[in-house]
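Data availability (excerpt). The following record was deposited with the supplementary files.
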Amino acid sequence: MRVSKAIETRVTIRQFLPTPVPEKIIREILEIAKRAPSGGNLQPWNVHVLVDDPLKALVDDIAGKLKKGIEEDPEYNVYPPELVDPYKTRRRIVGQMLYELIGVPRDDLPGKLKQLSRNFRFFDAPVGIFFVMHRQMEIGQYADLGMFMQNIMLLAREYGLHTCAQEAWARWPETLQEHLGLADHEMLFCGMALGYSDETAIINKLTSEREEFENFATLHGF
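Predicted structure:
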């Protein structure tokens, strides 16, 4: 698959098939993805991959805590607290598109929370991936980690797989520290669902908008 085709077909999948992903493929994807650019060659990423019993144990643990109303304090803001436009509007629009697609009315808070909670089942994907960094790292290393994650998402397309990057997992730092055996100096950044897309699921038809070239690019000297 050409890189351009992988980029064009990479979308956020929110319903996966239960079909297992062979360990060989997961290893190959991570091995190739590690060639992501890294300032000073710090390679600031550590990866935890969960399948089968460890994945089920985590999903069941979170489900039980959600049922009891238990919450944890995220270690960082996924979005800026006072998001300004045009970013605020973009986020609102894509949210509306999602809930309209799956038939959840704007004022149906329980319905929205139910959909949000599906993050913590990895949208039924057979593989859950977590990305962890040393707490000493700063903004430059977050960029490196993002490029590493992008490599994984594009390589997944080459193997006929899909992904969903999930910063929602930042809501459960204590639970994930326990399940992943993280040291005190390690900080969870986010999770990622990996698997085969359920092509029959209406929610997977969502395609978010992108700005026109002229709205985000300024050419100098052309």
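Summary of structural features: The chain is about 40% helix and 15% strand.
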